């Protein structure tokens, strides 16, 4: 029997509570107060149907647990067979899921299921394109907190499906000192000293710098675990790697695109974070075909 858990990416966690809650909210939004009045008006209650979820393009699939949960919530009598699980590359035309059962439930769940799979597969496919550009280097590509409100856990899961890594899930994950924190706290050393005195022994401290002078100041304090190199060009990134000599982890942000990621990776930095993975991923083209 296909369950949401059976089509999860094997190496990426997505809470079953998050799946259930996201689907419930999406169905509430779509069904409203009166339900699918089109299907109720046109489809006999006892009618049965068969349908397939088909990829209309090649890419990396993600979001199948939410599609399965969509139909499960609408009717336990919808039977689902699968030819894929999240995180695999699919070819154009591949039949990913096959559904059979009550026609009203299948039709009512169609758009919700497609929205989840289209959105999350788009994120996974774009992430995989970035990752491909970094092959043979040490660099790991990460997402950011620039996610769709309410969908962060799902979109960050999709990044993992595409071979990327997750940055912070929220403000409570780690200490990330940005330029505004430095300005308010009175400088690099004061802000790092306050952060270090507050942080627990398992909490990492990352600080953003805009110049090599700032990087030098951070290195002198020996108080940061990670330095975020913000909007630096390739020659400057190379200098930063040479200056650091492995004393702290280096992350790049700003200007991290699919066309620039290979050059960034070649500088020897450890991580690059890109908000585009989640805020600018194009929707993956997927459809539900009846009678297939």
Could you please describe the fold and organization of this structure?
- This protein is an alpha/beta fold and 292 residues long.
- It folds into two domains: 4-126 and 282-290, Quinolinate phosphoribosyl transferase, N-terminal domain (Aldehyde Oxidoreductase, domain 3, Alpha-Beta Complex); 133-279, TIM Barrel.
- The chain has helices spanning 16-31, 37-42, 64-74, 103-133, 152-161, 179-185, 188-198, 212-221, 234-244, 261-266, 276-279, and strands spanning 48-55, 59-60, 79-82, 89-90, 95-102, 140-142, 175-177, 205-209, 226-230, 249-253, 271-273, 286-290.
- It has a six-stranded parallel sheet with strand order 6-11-10-9-8-7.
- The protein is elongated.
- The two termini are 20 Å apart.
- The model has no long low-confidence stretch (mean pLDDT 96).
CATH class of the largest domain, named: Alpha Beta
**Which structural class do the helices and strands define?**
alpha/beta
Report the major sheet.
Answer: 6 strands, parallel
- Helical amount among residues, as a percent range? 40-55%
CA radius of gyration is: 23 Å
Q: Could you name the ranges where pLDDT drops below 50 across 5 or more consecutive residues?
A: none
How many β-strands, per DSSP? 12
Cα distance spanning the termini: 20 Å
Q: What is the residue-mean pLDDT, rounded to a whole number?
A: 96
Oligomer: single chain
Coarse shape: elongated
